[in-house]
Structure to design on (413 residues):
């Protein structure tokens, strides 16, 4: 789905921001005004204009907050957070660029200001992880409590809980408009977190991605079950991974028996293919699947100079995976596959696919076919539905409807 820009990467990232408008993460007019000022294919122009819009909406949010206009304030803070996230997106070619940390902090700060004004409950959490902590947010639909008829005997309403994490390039602040608010509307608790390679964990803690994501999810589940989080039903925990998170969540679910459901949005079987797939059935395939570091680095460098998606994808990948060269990145991704792993998943699993997905084409069906769990469902989203793009970012209402309808049904089994 092309929007404003001819370049597919710029078009998709524009659609990504605008798509969040359904749940208040953006305003369409603000987005269109911003991108109209951006020079096609120019990463600096992208940063400048999104940052300019973010600052303007941030100022408006502060003014509303100072006047105790709570709803206007949190709505504006939420949009500012989205725009700061978008501004920072293309900066990772230079990991030492100070704007990465500064702009990310602005995105987090404005989101947290919004969250403290939300009409539902919000809590920042720190989850113990291998001698440090990883950040998370805990949301509940409200502070509602029910009684058994006695004014002296209140009972907490225990709810099912959806744990959500992103993938290759997302932040947990973005997850609010993408997934959290829809889950809250259905009466779910929701927990988001960032692990190695993501959000704060890569930007401040400098901890890169790891393939064995079960070692990240286990401490998260431990925290959920062993801390005083209101209204957690320990028998109704579901996990959803988005984008490359479709691989990560599947890997975790294969080794985490305390999950009662898993959602792969979308299914990812082999991350290695996302980096070498563009070279399949070309004369360069034998180079990209070899161990020739020098040639791979040359091939990728040329590709990065000719193609914006390759330029951004490899640059961000080297930063988030903690490597210095394209060859090292390609080698790192070899372990990120579900061969012999997805068969171990026991809980009911929903595998989603986008008809026009260019990131992991064809992989969701491979994941689905490999599953051996007793209950599984495959859901394909089409271009005709307006949902054919990666992770269905232009059709979040439809995507959440299908996810949560399936989860509602699964939770009652």
């Amino acid at each position: 789905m092309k929007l404003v820009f001819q370049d597919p990467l710029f078009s998709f990232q524009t659609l990504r921001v605008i798509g969040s408008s359904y749940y208040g993460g953006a305003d369409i007019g603000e987005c269109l005004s911003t991108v109209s000022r951006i020079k096609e294919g120019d990463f600096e122009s992208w940063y400048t204009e999104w940052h300019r819009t973010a600052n303007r909406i941030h100022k408006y949010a502060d003014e509303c907050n100072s006047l105790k206009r709570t709803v206007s304030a949190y709505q504006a803070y939420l949009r500012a957070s989205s725009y700061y996230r978008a501004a920072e997106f293309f900066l990772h070619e230079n990991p030492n660029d100070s704007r990465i940390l500064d702009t990310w902090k602005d995105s987090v700060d404005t989101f947290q200001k919004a969250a403290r004004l939300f009409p539902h409950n919000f809590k920042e959490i720190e989850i113990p992880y291998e001698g440090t902590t990883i950040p998370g947010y805990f949301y509940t639909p409200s502070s509602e409590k029910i009684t058994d008829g006695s004014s002296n005997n209140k009972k907490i309403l225990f709810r099912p809980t959806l744990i959500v994490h992103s993938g290759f390039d997302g932040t947990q602040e973005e997850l609010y408009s993408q997934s959290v608010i829809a889950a809250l509307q259905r009466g779910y608790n929701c927990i988001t977190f960032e692990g190695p390679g993501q959000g704060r964990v890569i930007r401040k803690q400098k901890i890169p991605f790891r393939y064995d994501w079960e070692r990240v999810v286990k401490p998260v589940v431990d925290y959920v079950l062993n801390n005083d989080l209101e209204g957690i039903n320990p028998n109704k925990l579901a996990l959803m991974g988005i984008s490359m998170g479709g691989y990560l969540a599947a890997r975790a679910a294969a080794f985490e028996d305390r999950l009662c459901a898993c959602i792969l949005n979308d299914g990812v079987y082999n991350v290695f293919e996302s980096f070498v797939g563009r070279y399949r059935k070309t004369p360069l395939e034998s180079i990209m699947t070899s161990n020739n570091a020098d040639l791979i680095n040359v091939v990728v460098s040329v590709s990065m100079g000719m193609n914006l998606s390759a330029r951004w994808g490899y640059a961000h990948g080297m930063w988030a995976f903690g490597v210095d060269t394209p060859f090292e990145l390609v080698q790192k991704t070899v372990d990120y596959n579900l061969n012999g792993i997805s068969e171990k998943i026991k809980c009911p699993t929903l595998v989603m696919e986008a008809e026009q997905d260019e990131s992991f084409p064809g992989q969701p069906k491979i994941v689905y076919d490999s599953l051996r769990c007793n209950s599984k469902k495959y859901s394909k989203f089409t271009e005709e539905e307006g949902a054919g793009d990666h992770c269905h970012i232009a059709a979040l209402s439809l995507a959440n409807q299908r996810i949560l309808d399936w989860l509602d049904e699964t939770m009652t089994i």
Remarks:
- Confidence is low (pLDDT under 50) at residues 145-151.
- The longest strand covers residues 232-242.
- The domain at 1-119 is CATH 1.20.1440.110 (de novo design (two linked rop proteins)).
- Residues 320 and 400 are 28 Å apart (CA to CA).
